[in-house]
């Protein structure tokens, strides 16, 4: 019987890199794209003998929608040639508004893409300019209209809060405009300042000022409240969906299900082994030329390591985890092994045990890092 697996495909190209972004992605590298796609397909061939059945395929980046239609056509033909793909496979793509075109959408629809996520971040043009985004609010609305006209049904949007220049009034406007698009899924992320980005430099030189922690929490609670009123169920710390529209692929990450990653710097997780690909083009190409999977780093985890990782990642999910399932999976007694930490956080009101499920409380979602530290 074939092993069910998720597939992540990394597209490390953008038209422009955003001011907050530290992802492995490159701007103004158009001359590299064709060669990269050639090698991505060669990498797929190295997995052809593996007995995998894909039930989720996720294109991330970078900006996957930056690829020309013919390049995505080549990639998808290769995936279907080298892998078995389940009939109900979730096929997802991240898109930026300015790169959404009818020609590209025709290719996505032809190859069975059934989950589309648009990186909106904000509808306020001043906020978007500061973030280094190439689109404006009107472009988002125009591209969503195009998606709907072409028959796209499962549409999600990514938004960001706690941005410099974004006060509560702008947040409320962003959320209202986002809801007016009637998306099936909304991811709402808090701005994280990453080392080496323009935002990090500007914070250090005081060219921008970050929002206070209390104001950030107020924004997050407002988002939770308004999305619940609008019929979206929060199923993870940053993710909200209409019933049935939760991301199958992303839940693999949070539940430690198996997946393989293809492309520059892509990560994979198979049972107790996790590994990541080369992060430089020349190293990536050279390994594949030698007939090897382009793996740069591999780690064999102990069952104890994986147990703690399982607890921490599953607690990102609003439903948490079933204690009996955890006990069976790792042959432990969770409530005995972590008694001190559990008792402490039950008293603090950060965790809850109900009907055998261990979860963060609403308060715990705000301050849960301390629980992680206590079990480590």
Automatic annotation (TrEMBL):
One GO term describing the cellular component: cytoplasm
Sequence intervals crossing the membrane: none
Signal peptide boundaries: none
Iron as UniProt keyword: yes
Principal cellular location given in the protein's record: cytoplasm
Molecular function as annotated in GO: 4 iron, 4 sulfur cluster binding; coproporphyrinogen oxidase activity; metal ion binding
The UniProt record lists the keyword Cell inner membrane: no
InterPro entries: Coproporphyrinogen-III_oxidase (IPR034505), Elp3/MiaA/NifB-like_rSAM (IPR006638), HemN_C (IPR010723), HemW-like (IPR004559), rSAM (IPR007197), rSAM_horseshoe (IPR023404), rSAM_sf (IPR058240)
SMART domains: Elp3 (SM00729)
Top-level taxon of the source organism: Bacteria
Subcellular location as annotated: Cytoplasm
Keywords noted in UniProt: 4Fe-4S, Chaperone, Cytoplasm, Heme, Iron, Iron-sulfur, Metal-binding, S-adenosyl-L-methionine
GO terms under biological process: porphyrin-containing compound biosynthetic process
Domain Radical SAM core: 1-233
Function recorded in the entry: Probably acts as a heme chaperone, transferring heme to an unknown acceptor. Binds one molecule of heme per monomer, possibly covalently. Binds 1 [4Fe-4S] cluster. The cluster is coordinated with 3 cysteines and an exchangeable S-adenosyl-L-methionine.
Membership in a protein family: Belongs to the anaerobic coproporphyrinogen-III oxidase family. HemW subfamily.
Protein name: Heme chaperone HemW
Organism: Ignavigranum ruoffiae
């Amino acid at each position: 019987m074939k092993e069910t697996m998720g597939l992540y495909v990394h597209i490390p190209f953008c038209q422009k890199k955003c001011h907050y972004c530290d992802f492995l992605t490159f701007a103004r590298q158009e001359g590299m794209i064709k060669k990269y796609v050639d090698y991505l397909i060669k990498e797929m061939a190295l997995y052809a003998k593996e007995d995998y059945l894909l039930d989720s395929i996720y294109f991330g980046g970078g900006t996957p929608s930056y690829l020309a239609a013919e390049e995505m056509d080549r990639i998808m033909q290769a995936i279907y040639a080298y892998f078995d793909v389940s009939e109900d496979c979730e096929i997802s793509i991240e898109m930026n508004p300015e790169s959404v075109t009818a020609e590209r959408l025709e290719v996505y629809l032809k190859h069975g893409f059934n989950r589309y996520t648009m990186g909106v971040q904000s509808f306020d043009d001043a906020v978007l300019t500061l973030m280094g985004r190439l689109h404006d609010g009107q472009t988002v609305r125009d591209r969503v209209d195009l998606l709907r006209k072409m028959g796209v049904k499962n549409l999600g949007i990514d938004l960001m809060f706690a941005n410099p220049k974004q006060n509560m009034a702008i947040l409320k406007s962003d959320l209202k405009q986002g809801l007016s698009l009637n998306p099936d899924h909304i991811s709402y992320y808090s701005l994280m300042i990453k080392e080496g980005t323009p935002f990090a430099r500007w914070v250090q030189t005081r060219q921008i000022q970050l929002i206070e922690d209390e104001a950030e929490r107020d924004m997050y609670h407002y988002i939770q409240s308004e999305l619940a009123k609008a019929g979206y169920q929060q199923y993870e710390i940053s993710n909200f969906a209409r019933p049935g529209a939760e991301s199958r692929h992303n839940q693999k990450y949070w539940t430690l299900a198996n997946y393989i990653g293809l492309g520059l710097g892509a990560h994979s997780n198979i049972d107790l082994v996790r590994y990541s690909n080369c992060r430089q083009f020349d190293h990536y190409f050279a390994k594949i030329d030698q007939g090897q999977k382009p793996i740069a780093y591999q780690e064999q985890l102990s069952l104890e390591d994986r147990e703690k990782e399982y607890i921490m990642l599953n607690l990102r999910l609003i439903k948490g985890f079933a204690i009996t399932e955890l006990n069976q999976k790792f042959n432990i007694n969770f409530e005995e092994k972590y008694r001190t930490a559990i008792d402490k956080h039950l008293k603090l009101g950060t965790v809850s045990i109900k009907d055998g499920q261990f979860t963060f409380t609403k308060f715990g979602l705000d301050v849960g890092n301390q629980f992680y530290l206590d079990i480590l």
